[in-house]
Specification:
410 residues; FAD/NAD(P)-binding domain; Enolase-like, domain 1; 3 domains; five-stranded parallel beta sheet; globular
């Protein structure tokens, strides 16, 4: 009998998580992990934070030896250029084909490029998705120079924070009324606006970049409100999914590769996980998220289902963002709708609070700024589903972890 071969396409955390889960679950066939970057799988969150600042150790998920110890064959620097779902084989960039019994698409995405801006000057206009991107950007972050960040989303805000700590002058240009507005809403976006301004960032909201041009050693950025000069521009305009190859092979794709709650496409033996996967969440319906923790968990679910386990990814989504000395954490808020009440504990205007979303007298989401232990307690409240009273959540003298065990007063 020939050994089964599972192919994982994409060397990010979803792919790495799938590979390790396969071995942990006792899979004794071949595991091939194909990634187009020159590195073994690594974590992206440090790329806008400690790695960008030059203070982090290697962001590798596993050391090189792990791959030999676990008989996982990494094929780095190799792009998968084709998929034949009938013959069950992939085609590599150099034309070689490799057969599979099951394949996992864990290809994440690429930083969005804006035609006419992104391509003006390769040295001065930057994007951030890969280690190489982070290294190139770090080389431009010199004290006293100006960095303009186009886009006040998480990546843009995190880079702005890191750059300020390195003494760089920073301007954020954001089209919306506040940074992080799409993810957090205008009010919480306003909290981050104050944090950035207090740190010396020039934050310009409601302003659209129209063009960029070379200007001596630097760049001149033209917006609908005026012009500004800088040495470097970071285009932080979100993620574009890599679905062309899969759609051409007949894999259903819309905003990503369409999968069910078990990370299965509707084609036999074809799975998807992580940022590329538009998954059917049992609680929130179809959505696609770009969060580290979900990628890790989905990779594990996909791996177990490649082995026929029949499990689902039904965790509430968890993410965090570090900016300066502040940490934002969120659990269960992504995709959640139809709340009965929102309860705030602490002071958003002092950048220290927890916000709970309630439905039917139970906490269904928690989001906190610099309130790690309370967010963790809130997370346990979401998981336990115990009834809680809003006034107890609001009351800072009530220890939240006690509510997990003790239901609310009648
Ligand atoms: C700068 C930055 C900071 C972040 N910070 C946070 C944070 O603080 N908190 C948080 O929750 N999340 C954060 N994220 C998001 C998190 O990193 C992602 O959700 C996570 O990396 C997704 O993992 P993935 O394995 O699905 O995809 P990726 O990490 O994108 O990995 C996919 C890999 O597949 C490769 N690939 C693509 N196509 C092919 C192909 N055809 N053949 C072979 N290989 C291919 C890609 O090059 C890539 O290496 C951050 C992301 C970035 C970019």
């Amino acid at each position: 009998m020939t050994r089964r071969r599972f192919v994982i396409v994409g060397g990010g955390v979803a792919g790495a998580s799938a590979a390790s889960t396969l071995r942990r679950e006792g899979f004794d066939g071949e595991v091939l992990l194909v990634g187009d970057e020159p590195h073994l799988p690594y974590e992206r969150p440090p790329l806008s934070k400690e790695w960008l600042a030059g203070t982090a150790p290697s962001p590798a998920v596993y050391p090189e030896q792990w791959y030999a110890d676990n008989a996982v064959e990494p094929l780095t620097g190799t792009r998968v250029a084709g998929l034949d779902v009938t013959a069950r084989r992939i085609t590599l960039g150099d034309g070689r084909t490799v057969g599979y019994d099951a394949v996992l698409i864990a290809t994440g995405g690429q930083a969005r490029r804006i035609p006419g801006l992104s391509d003006v000057d390769a040295e001065r206009v930057h994007h951030l998705r890969t280690r190489a991107d982070s290294d190139a950007l770090r080389a431009r972050l010199r004290p006293g120079r100006r960095l303009v960040v186009l886009g006040g989303g998480f990546v843009g805000c995190e880079v702005a924070a890191t750059a300020r700590t390195l003494g760089v002058e920073v301007t954020i240009l954001e089209m919306a009324a506040a940074p992080l507005e799409r993810a957090l809403g205008t009010e919480l976006g306003g909290v981050f606006a104050r944090i950035h301004r207090a740190a010396g960032v020039e934050l310009r909201c409601g302003e659209r970049v129209e063009s960029v041009a070379r200007n001596g050693d630097g760049l001149v950025v033209h917006t609908d409100r005026g012009t500004l000069e800088c040495s470097t521009l970071l285009v932080a305009a979100g993620l574009v999914r890599d679905t062309e190859v899969w759609a051409a092979a007949g894999v259903p794709c819309a905003d990503g590769v369409l999968v069910d709650a078990g990370c299965r496409t509707d084609l036999p033996g074809v799975f998807a996980a992580g940022d590329v996967a538009a998954h059917e969440h049992p609680r929130y319906g179809r959505l696609r998220v770009e969060h580290h923790d979900s990628a890790v968990r989905q990779g594990a679910v996909a791996a177990r289902n490649m082995l026929g386990a029949g499990v689902v990814f039904d965790d509430p989504h968890w993410f965090w963002s570090d900016q300066y000395e502040h940490t934002l954490q969120s659990y269960g808020g992504v995709g959640e709708s139809g709340l009965d009440a929102v309860v705030v504990r602490g002071r958003p205007d002092e950048a220290s609070f927890v916000r709970f979303g309630l439905r039917g007298g139970r906490v269904v989401s928690v989001l906190g700024l610099d309130r790690g232990p309370e967010v963790m307690a809130g997370r346990r409240l979401v998981q336990s589903g115990v009834p809680v009273a809003a006034d107890q959540l609001r009351d800072e003298s009530v220890e939240l972890r006690r509510l997990v065990r003790r239901p609310a007063r009648a």
